[in-house]
Amino acid sequence: MKLSKKSRFFPYAMLLPTVVIFAVFMIYPIIYSFYLSFTEFSGGTYNFVGLQNYIELFKDPVFYKALFNTFFYLIIQVPVMIGLALLLAVLIEQKFIRGRGFFRMSTFLPTITSLVAYALIFKVLFNTDHGLINYLVEFFGGEKIQWIYSAWPARASIIISITWRWVGYNMVILLAGIQAIPTDLYESASLDGANFWQKLRYVTIPSIKPVILFTTITSTIGTLQLFDEPYILTQGGPNYATITL
Amino acid sequence: MKKVKMFASAAAVAAAAMLALTACGGGGSSASAESGDGNTITVWAWDVALKQLQAAAEKFKETHPDVEFTFEEMGTDQIYTKLATTLSTGKGLADVIQIEGEQVSGYATKYPDGFADLSDIVNEDDFLDVKIGEVSANGKIVGFPWDAGPVALFYRRDYFEQAGVNAEDIKTWDDFIEAGKKITETCTTPSGEPVKMLPIAPNGSNFWKLILTENGGSFFDAEGNTIVNSPEALEAMEMAKKIYDAGIAQNYSDWAEYEGVVVNENVATIPEAVWMIGTIKDKGPDQSGKWGVIDLPAFPGKDPAGSTNGGANLVIPSTSPNLDIAKEFVEFALTDQQLQVDGFVNYGLFPSYIPVYDDPTFSEPDEFFGGQKIYETFIKLGQTVPSVNYTENFNEALSAAGSACSKVYLEGEDPKTALDELQNDLVSKFGK
Amino acid sequence: MIKKICVYFLLILAAFLSLFPFYFMFVSGTNSNQAILAAPPRLIPGDMLAQNFSVLVEKMDIFRVAFNTLFLSVVFVLLAVILFSSAGYVLAKYEFKGKGIIFGFIMVSMMIPAQVMYVPLFQMFVSAGMTNTYAAVILPSLANAFGIFLMRQNMMNFPTALIEAARIDGYTEFQIFTHIVLPNVKPALSALVIYMFTTMWNNFMWPLIVLETKDMYNFPVALAVLDGNPTNKDFAVILLATSIATLPILFIFMVFQKQFVAGVMGGAVKE
């Protein structure tokens, strides 16, 4: 876009407050923290210790467990959640559905839950002896699962919890993408005799690829910064089986 | 132009709001940093301790009418988050701060000049050894000991009776296991499940740490060296495993489930500190008369001993502009006999100030506990607990110990292997 | 027909699983601690609401806390809308020196965990004598990369031809923004309002550090105080307070939800 001389400053003027705020409240603290990571706090002052903190980190076995878990969650949880979100979004968009607003809203709500309630509720659901989930497991002929007390089920419980909390959020984003797909694409697919899954495979998914990418990226960032669930549900245990970076 | 106006007015509102925000800065802030007039004391504490300190302040004002107080109620996590950020700047701190017993030396070691030296007002002989241990760091007394957490064995009289178990016969942990098997076989909870003997968190180190202290062991020796695979520690871990493997433990994983075992009457005993009296009365009000208290079972061949869990202390930041008057207040609040008795009666804050134990209140029977004189048990056991060196590495050691315990309980790992591994991990981490 | 039933079944199941925890939270506010901690917990409303509420108001100045939270959220949303829409607009529609670097920095900052910034930020506010103010809570939160990103993505969709036409009509650059662009990205603004309102409403760690007195606390911090005793917790009162703190968010979402979906779309489709 060509601008007159007078207007050339316009973008800078518009950005100025944002840039100042980012410089003061984001860039400066990050640089300062980065500097602190090369120091050690002892005797009331920060002493420069070079790379020692990093060397200690890489020598710490807990760090590798955390690294493993974070990537494990990433590989399993993100695809499961996006897939589920996509399925729900497609189902809500079926023509015959009444009460879309209700379904959309109820699925989105977990995103805004407070952590205290979230923690209490999931403890109730995953409780080994009286939990609702184990009740269902037994109902279908399975054996009670030690959700919190053994490594893999504990990881699974974390994945289930994160998925519960964030699936609606991603569903709303995907839903928005689906609504933008021209209806004639579906109509012609119907004329060609495509069933539900074929439409999903050949029309919906290709049309909203960028949206899927967007949700995958934001979910990945979220999982890399994961902290709440392991902290609340399993305290990182048992034996650091669920701890994250 | 309507839109322009709307945007402009929104911007104006926002700008005005910003101004107002900045203006609030002067009036809204009550941090001690600026209250250096020598007679306003800011206090951070949680829940009932705060109420008790407020009562103490009222009484203090009778002799010091010119002293003002500001009380800020905070949660434990909140206090620690604030301490971590404020101690490194020395600003924004209160004059008097409550800290859990095990956490004091961690902060005092990391910030050696952070807390005022209270050696001149704390007479070590007047307090339980274990509490003096909590507030000692760098060869100084950095906190004022407050409530203690001596541990005894809470037990359900009705379940014991039903199973034909005599409480007085439980002398050792081996007796405890035998009694536990009988109770698990005989008794059922109101909802029809078998009653377990005690609650254990299998992914935590609470129980092991509790009997480790009873057995005279600890995480660190007096010099701060890690000693988690000492013979005492191994014996405690083997006993913990024996108890867990006997199938008499009720699993729990967090505080809500822990309180739940009281509500749901799942267990026949709880080895816990004196403050559990309040929790049991609150969460099981209809269980009055069903509870009793006995000594903690001893290790085979050893004398009965106590243990400790919880309780808090008060610290005074050395940067406090009201240092002298804050010290005077803390000493008064925590050694005035009547205040200590009131704090115990009203809020269950069990004093660590030994002279106050002579007060008749502490030899009174408690109706909820079947008229038993339960406080005497805690006083007796509290004085047997030795001083423990917590060091700045306590939290890290505690979480690593939780991991070692979960391997022993849940994966059947050999206690010796688990503790040797724990020892190696901690030594390589702390360098000693 | 069978297909319809299956679809409805799945959706209702999803809605049930999502709503159940909220139901549990609201119901628990009317029950006793014994009922909540029982196994299984009581799932029907009890008669303890009045008593729990009177304990709550005794422990927490709920109206003051509600005012603080609302004030923080409203002012923050107002500032965020102004800042992020201006920044997002020029980042989407103008070419100028330094644009790449500025946008790059903003994006990278999205990946930095907030915890690493608390100590330097706190030191900064202490030296400025600005701890325990609303401004201290709001200002750092305005460094929010996601909001700018969302706005930029939406503005990318805006037809450049319209802007050119307005320019020929003699509008100034600022008038184009306020007059032409903003009115046409309302859905995006709704999405921004919901995101930012929720962010500030649930803001916990930073207010916990920078606020010092009870009269300044927002809901999350006040809830933490309520939950502060490590050895005896009043779950009924905590869950009642949590329910009260959740209601306004529910309300905001209901008001803006239609536009919200459309607004999120603009952000997600283009890239």
Would you write up a description of this structure?
The complex is a heterotrimer of chains A (245), B (432) and C (271). Chain A is mainly alpha-helical. Chain A has helices spanning 10-36, 52-59, 61-92, 100-108, 115-126, 132-139, 151-179, 183-191, 196-207, 209-224, 228-234; strands at residues 39-42, 45-48. Chain A is 69% helix and 3% strand. The mean pLDDT of chain A is 76. In chain A, helix 3 packs antiparallel against helix 10 (209-224) and helix 7 runs antiparallel to helix 11 (228-234). Chain A starts with 9 loop residues before the first helix and ends in an 11-residue tail after the last helix. Chain B has 432 residues and is an alpha/beta fold. Chain B folds into two domains: 38-149 and 310-358, D-Maltodextrin-Binding Protein, domain 2 (3-Layer(aba) Sandwich), CATH 3.40.190.10; 150-309 and 368-430, D-Maltodextrin-Binding Protein, domain 2. Chain B is built from 16 helices and 13 strands. Chain C has a domain at 62-217 and 249-269: MetI-like fold, CATH 1.10.3720.10. The two termini of chain C are 39 Å apart. Chains in contact: A-B, A-C, B-C. Chains A and C meet through helix 1, helix 3, helix 4, helix 5 and helix 7 of A and helix 1, helix 4, helix 5, helix 6 and helix 9 of C.
Low-confidence stretches of chain A: none
The amount of beta strand of chain A, in percent, is: under 5%
β-strand percent of chain C reads under 5%
Q: What is the rounded distance between the termini of chain A?
A: 44 Å
- Average pLDDT confidence of chain A is 76
Overall SS class of chain C: mainly alpha
Structural domain count of chain A: 2
CATH architecture of the domain at 62-217 and 249-269 in chain C: Orthogonal Bundle
Q: Strand sequence of the main sheet of chain A, in spatial order?
A: 1-2
From the 3D structure, determine the CATH topology of the domain at 62-217 and 249-269 in chain C. MetI-like fold
CATH class of the largest domain in chain A: Mainly Alpha
What is the number of helical segments of chain A per DSSP (H or I, 4+ residues)?
Answer: 11
CATH class of the domain at 62-217 and 249-269 in chain C: Mainly Alpha
Poorly predicted parts of chain C:
none
Mean pLDDT of chain C: 85
Q: What percent of residues of chain C adopt helix (DSSP H or I)?
A: over 70%
At the fourth CATH level, what is the homologous superfamily of the largest domain in chain A? MetI-like
Q: What's the SSE pattern of chain A?
A: HEEHHHHHHHHHH
- The CATH level-2 architecture of the largest domain in chain A is identified as Orthogonal Bundle
